[in-house]
Amino acid sequence: MDGFEKRTERKKENIRQAAFELFSAHGVQRVSVAEIAKKAKVSQVTIYNYFGSKDELLRDVILSLLNKRLYEDMEVIESNLPFPEKIETYVSERTSELSAMDPDFLKSLKSEDPVIRQIAEDFTKNKYIPLMLRLIEKGRKEGYIQHSISNEAILIYINMFREGKRSDALLNFEESRKYFKELVTLFFYGILGKPLDK
Questions:
Q1: Residues 107-112: contacts with CB within 8 Å, 24+ apart?
Q2: CA 156 to CA 70: how far, in whole Å?
Q3: Assessment of whether the complete model's pTM goes beyond 0.70
Q4: Which one of 67, 95, 109, 148 is most buried, by most CB atoms within 10 A?
């Protein structure tokens, strides 16, 4: 990549970041290309030249965030951390920028835009699930996951835990952080604190 390509990619990333911050703070409909351009310190023409339209920019932002999250999760899963710490880091989403975006906002985007829905489905099927299966396999090899529990059940469980942690129905974010160690214990052992005898 030469100097011109690097500058172009840096500009694109600034535009994506500005759009992400504005979309997640105010919603897509309330944000104009002019506001994104001002925040990114570029002209509106530059945004249209790089992305074509606000809708295309939104799709690019979502795909970029999903890929960043995948990379962050991959780093955790492939690290030398003990398996329980991998799970704790993964479910806490401590490094994920995507976790800052309101999940209801993401759901509404998927329901309103079939292209975003397809992007999310393809990402889940072709990238996210295979990565989770690698994590599960590591857990089995290290003796942390029972062989009798199916991959499908574990995937549902991990997703339920991650989604539930974001919910403010019971506790606000600061409160839930105080109890995170206990939540990790619940993740591994349930409310009994040990496996059920058969």
A1: 109/28, 109/58, 109/62
A2: 18
A3: yes
A4: 109
pLDDT at 86: 86
Question: Which residue segments constitute the domains of the chain, with CATH numbers given?
Answer: 1-52 (1.10.10.60), 53-198 (1.10.357.10)
Tokens 């890929």 identify what position?
67
Number of H helices, E strands in the chain: 11, 0
Q: Which residues have C-beta within 8 Å of that of residue 155, sequence separation ≥ 6?
A: 129, 132, 133, 136
CA distances from 155 to 10, 35, 192 (A): 36, 39, 21
Q: What is the DSSP string of 108-146?
A: HHHHH-HHHHHHHHHHIIIIIHHHHHHHHHHHHHTT-S-
Provide the phi-psi class of 70: left if phi over 0, else alpha when psi is between -120 and 50, else beta.
alpha
* Long-range contacts, stretch 26-35, CB < 8 angstroms, 24+ apart: 27/105, 28/54, 28/58, 28/109, 33/57
Please report, for residues 29, 57, 92, 104, 106, the alpha-carbon distance to residue 119 in angstroms, rounded to integers and kept in the order given.
20, 13, 24, 17, 12
Distance CA 184, CA 148 (A): 21
pLDDT in tens, 52-84: 999 999 989 988 888 888 898 899 888 898 888
